What does this fold into?
Amino acid sequence: MRKFIIISCLFTCLYGKVRVVSSTSDIADIVKIIGGENVTVTSIARGNQDPHYVEILPSYMVKVRKADIYFMVGMELDLWAQQIINGSRNQKVMVVDCSVEINKMEVPTGKVDASMGDIHRFGNPHYWLDPENGKLIAKVVTEKLSNYDPKNADQYKTNLYEFEKDLDSAMSKWKNKFSILKDKKIIFYHNSWPYFSKRFGLITVGFLEPKPGITPSPSQLNQVINQIKENEIEVIASESYFSVRAPKFIESKTNVRIVKLAQSVGAIEGADSYINLFETNLLILAKAYGVMHD
Amino acid sequence: MLKKLIGGLFIVSISFGQTTANPQFSVVGDLIMNDLHNNPNFYSSGIEIAVQGYVNPFARADVYLHKHNDESALELEEAVMTIERGLPFGLGLRAGKFRPDLGKINKDHAHLFPFIEAPSGMANILGKEFWAGTGLEASIFLPLPWYSNISIGSFDSGLGDHDHGIEKEDVHNDHKDEDAHEDKDEHVDEHDHGKNEKKEKVFSARWGHFFEISDINLMEIGTSYYKGPESSLMGADFKYKWRPNKYRSLTIQGEIVQLSIKEEHHEEEVHKGEYKNKSDAGYLMINYQFNKSFNFGIIGDYYKETYKETEINPSIFFGFSPVEESTVFRLKIGQVEDHKSHKKHLKTTAQIIWSLGPHKPHRY
It folds into this structure.
């Protein structure tokens, strides 16, 4: 009898949880917060990986094979996810697009083709880089977890409330602490940051990539150097996965400072949770502009 | 009655919605410059047109048309429906004309190869364009903690041109006109071969495993088997990839196959039915991608036929992808053997490859 109870407990512990797979580590972290003890979550892309391009590995299909819910970023960022889901042959998995509630930025009007670079038809997909959008993702996660696992729905709603409260208090802290970043001019490597810039008041002057996804050419670098000199730009920020060669070249020709920001949870040291992602990035920028010191 | 009518209209509207969704359409083309005996010539390995999309929520279809050169017609390379969901036990099913799951390289289209042309030993056994059969293939994931997949297929057309003596690495491939002529002849040969083999059922199987040793160390191994009325094949393959980040990786890949063909002229003798002629082929490739745009590697190509000398041809290759994978420049310098004189020659091959649409010459 005792054996039976132990086995039952083990079974419940291992298999009684909702099995979730997400495309990125940011969504995984939000699922972890909302789901708590009732879910197990795995992310396909690591935080320091470029979420646009993920090499599809058979082991990812094994991860999705037993999943109950798959959370996608959507907006054509993680197109690879569909291949993984199909390859897993999991007929029961519920596929959820986390972008449904998002107020999308930079939605192209008119014809979209490869001459414009790696452009997304449904708008800029880096929406999780605005903490307000983190709340919308959490809302979708809560709704889907509650639908799938109604007996723990109250717990998920409580966790959502706690998460929103934490984000709100972090936001009001950031507003005061990092108000100095408002109206600071910046150049980014890739156009991943419109949601982040809008939320924290940064002014994006340009990008190192001449077009999204296209490696900066020497003429583009010269153009950026002139831009920096004309606009007195102090900082170039890049995602963690890009080479520092082009930014370093510009740094050697100007007085600009180069920083690497966390585009996702786990991308750089300190960005170990969704809230810490913003805290870390804002701190890095504040130090780069010389308005905050260690 | 009204409910039935509404239900019927709903079904019709779903079917209509599915059939009006456009599939993905892609084109991959290239230009190759070959230099042998200081006599460079230009040609194209062909244009590939890919039409891909979902047939319904359970299945997708992939159609590849290939035009080999200026003189050849547009041929059907693959036309396959893959049922990915809805079958019991997580079974997958492919039906149509396609490249069966046999070994590692057979499923890959040539534009994927960083070494431009298929290893000649493998091409001698699988056919210059590799083996595409018409039939059915079922695959199933084994319930193991790692990815383990078994595929078993039955086809109407068998392995390439081995019965007819396959075209060897084209050392005498000096002139564009000769190329075109040879390709045309090969096309006829393949066509005839297909015709002869249509009545014969062949079977193929592969058991593949994939291990994510760590976040950056990946390993794949597989064993394959093929059985035709006159021949059988056994093979083993592996691929190791070290990938610390998106723009840096080291790939080591190798494959060996052994083809056994029944001796056709000994039907009255004691050896009847025994496998007499054996051909072994294999390759070992090391490819290093050292930044976003550049890769460099070596490949050793091996071929051995019964009563003939072993051929080993090494090559080095280099690749440059300035704009992701939409345009790729490749260069290969390698040794090839003239099968008539048995002399070794140095051959330089350069390739510019481009793609429109989502089907691209992805990183290997």
